[in-house]
């Protein structure tokens, strides 16, 4: 980890997460409903249970989980046009919601879920970088609540979840390797990487992009170390909010 | 006002509003940003300033104000499909956002606003009836904050707002005339009316619909009285949240 | 009623309707087909019977009625772009067709209609103000014809219609309260109100909008009186065209 | 011409057109506005002048003419869904409106029109076969009226039209070669051909389709003869409606 | 045939086709897959078998054949925008794919095909005029291969094809009547005609358009003669590629 | 590298690429046009120069490069529906074309390109796994040709390209780590990773996904080694096809 001084715009150390706050039961209808705040990034994550599966899975005795993601128009510095006004999802939104869904499915045994769908909705009410990773981290807690609801209702006998997981971003800014980029850092990053991991450090997703400066294998390893540290901490926050002792 | 006993599902009197809470500066980027709660209905209302006007107004030395409205998918009892997934706004959404924009424009002197647009966004995070009227009441406060911001910045010399205003619903349920319907009441209403008024009781918008039972002129007058009472109270809440003494 | 002189652009008194002409059997395929002319506003209204209901009503032993509205491109002063060219309905069109459908359903006992749908189509071939209210007034006659057809064919035993109804506009122009606004009046109106009533003066729909000048409760009452007078006359025209003696 | 007896469903001879009626000044705003009736097929054709050209023609000192076509929902036996409800034009509609526009442009000297566009709208209010050819025949008259309007207004000095023209259909039904097919004939036709010609018998467009039975060159020639006869008669009707003596 | 000298841009005689090359089994998954080259025009034509029919044909013991057509973006001189980027098919594309499907269906006995659909896809990888006629000529060979596959697999007992067929273009350029127009000729043509014929010279489709200069019946006959000559030659190429001796 | 026997479905060793063939000048209009074949995967890659930039870059003295990707309908085992038929791009397509564009831009100095856009089109004519990585590898060669064209034409003085680059996939199948997955392997993979690198082994993009089995950091390193080996070989093929000696 680089031994730098207080270079970061918000005074953090290079390997330091922003403050994390997870509020459960944030709205009243969803089976799982979480407000996650990582610094100034705030996302409402809900998990909704629907007693059916999409056509391509019917009759196969398996469940499904899918995710949607959206920015409120003024979650951003300048107002973002609603996607419905263009009539279609942007490529960015599609990538993000596919990432969220795929990452969560990696820790769900869909066969144990039964023929039902869990809809995960991540609606960003304030964006300051890292909205997709905050969405994943918060959505996992909403998912735990929705699963627990199904168990309490006697719908499920055991949990189909097989690991805790969380996500964060890492990147290279002015040659420094940083954990959990805020918007200003993200904007200047030469390398930008989003990583989803299980609590024991196995990789679920890695998406790394070099904006102009391709990166070396060594840099990549350092970034992975940073991400692993951050994700272990995020899982602790998840457990604490769920009242689980470690 | 009818002298009934505690018929209402939530124990209110017929002419009683639900609890109102208005939180300003709810998110950090918008010039005006309000969370309004009326009972279990919760709406984020932002007012965003854009330094241009739509093509049809260019060069006419006048401003514009437009509104958009959306339900978060799990703001409702069962999950509502995002409109972008259908590729177009529903008729209901279009009606509501046209109503919000038209109502607010009625109290803004657009000529005094200069060649700029105010975007009002109303995003419902929890819906329990009366989302469109809560949106108008909350959006007016966000609008005041955005106008004050423009005055403080020296962009505007005087406020283009010429009256306080608010909105509420009234209706007939089981023959009873009620103020501020919650979802369960709204669902059963024989008559459903949304009214937008200035603080001195003049009508900006009235939209009344008979679901199966056309209503008499007498009933209509009683409903107008109820609305007027509610709107005066709502304007008091707006002023209190803005720190304005009455 | 105001005692004014010939202020109105077309020489009418303030409380005077434009000339009304209702031509039945206007086209040959529809079960009900009417050309309604109110002054220079001309609308083809058809009522078409379809022997099924939308999915949300299947198996519930009830019928449905829905309406669509469109302007021919050159029904207007300058050519209006077809909505299909934009790929979607405008908010104005959606509002109008929802209004027409809702208003007509208020006088139909859908349970008596059986599991069938009546499609009401209102296509404006010439527009001079009041196209939505002319559509409702004309569509009601087409609906009567379609219902009579079903009775004659032995499909229905009794009529599901429980009242005559019609619609008109009222408004405030230059301080004058006027009945049945033509385009030029509508364009200048400070207040614009569309009212749908049964023949005995009960309100089905009221939609009133203040363009800049919120209106008082007194003004509203006067406008309601004007509308009531006009609607009684319109119902007379409907009955005469149907050969019903009053 | 085949010497058959009264085989045709409506009693016509094989080489006989349906009754034709052309009503000019049908609506009041368009520069040219015609109702054409050919038997039970009825089409409103308007020609609207716009003082600009599409981007690809700007600054080239030439004009443009374009056409749009639509069926009213209940112009047909069973109700046709509006195209805007699907969000896009059908292939059939696109073909027809391209045909109408191309055919009319063939007799207009666009250079003489100046930098303006003529929008031709053909809205079918009752369809009984041959709607596209009736549209062309009627639209030509509306176009003459719009051009004459421009000449009377002093906008144009001379007419850019260089020939009368009209269109009809021919086809093979049960081995008989028929002129001007009504819907029932069209439905059964083995060969279906639409032909647009100038008044002196030159071909502007020919579109022939064999539904299952490819046709010989001899049959094609006979069909062309029939079409030529019909089109000469249609041009006479056009001239008569325009008060032009032949 | 006109006795002209080497007027044509590529040195051909007026009644001469461009070089034709038909490559079968061009890609490995489709039941029929052909690359057809006519001069510099190159089209991949595939025929795909699907074991179902569209809803309007279900249970009627008949098959279906439908066609789609597309240009690769840089098949053209300057890059053509993908149609998906506009969200809808152009009128030109719809016309072409309807023409291809209709033409091929004219030689298929759909009843003999059984309840299955053949999808014909024509993707132009290089365009130098005549892409729609090359598509039809090539698609017919792909269709023969797909049918033979179904016979070899024992799915069909006999071929539902009842004739060879092919298509070409003819036109008038600088007063010369030409067979098989390349792009440069097509661009300058006064008359442009696409003709689809069976191998014995019967007409399946004729689509002729006068760009500014309506053409006489005599010209039309000469053009038909040219097309007939070309189509007989194209059928020979088809047979040769299929290893069928004439 | 794992020392396995001929486990792979096509007889390759674990660290062996499929046969690669790169054909330049594949079509005649594009400034760069390549057919790349990697095993049975075949993609036409073109690079087209347009003398303008998108609005967000105008006047900034910089160029742009953007990519589009599409599957021909029968490039796949069973026919894939065209995206235009759904009216919008799938999430998968958007992800792929964003990846291609971003990867190529990482090696282009856009400032040196001048105010012009390079459109990269990757159209898959046969798909057997690895279509996105083959697209990138092939598109790079088309890009080199387009840049060389601009230099030869005197439009550019020096190349804005700063490194060779290529892409491949790696994955874990039945516990084996494999280079360059074909469709059958990709379908069964527990881990699937696409990697884009410069010729000297720096990472431009990494996208790794665990389908059910999150992977360890060790596995990830081995996969990176495999990818690096493959990409060096692919760059050799690119250079050979361009006639560049190493």
Automatic annotation (TrEMBL), chains A, B, C, D, E, F:
The keyword Transferase applies. Keywords: Nucleotidyltransferase, RNA-binding, rRNA processing, Transferase, tRNA processing, tRNA-binding. Pfam families: RNase_PH, RNase_PH_C. Transmembrane segments: none annotated. InterPro entries: ExoRNase_PH_dom1, ExoRNase_PH_dom2, ExoRNase_PH_dom2_sf, PNPase/RNase_PH_dom_sf, Ribosomal_Su5_D2-typ_SF, RNase_PH, RNase_PH_bac-type, RNase_PH_CS. It is an enzyme of class 2 (transferase). It catalyses: tRNA(n+1) + phosphate = tRNA(n) + a ribonucleoside 5'-diphosphate. Its EC number is 2.7.7.56. Residues 16-146, 165-230 form the Exoribonuclease phosphorolytic domain. The keyword Ubl conjugation does not apply. Phosphate binds at residues 92, 130-132. GO terms for molecular function: 3'-5'-RNA exonuclease activity; tRNA binding; tRNA nucleotidyltransferase activity. GO terms for biological process: rRNA 3'-end processing; rRNA catabolic process; tRNA processing. Homohexameric ring arranged as a trimer of dimers. Phosphorolytic 3'-5' exoribonuclease that plays an important role in tRNA 3'-end maturation. Removes nucleotide residues following the 3'-CCA terminus of tRNAs; can also add nucleotides to the ends of RNA molecules by using nucleoside diphosphates as substrates, but this may not be physiologically important. Probably plays a role in initiation of 16S rRNA degradation (leading to ribosome degradation) during starvation. Belongs to the RNase PH family. This is Ribonuclease PH. The gene is rph.
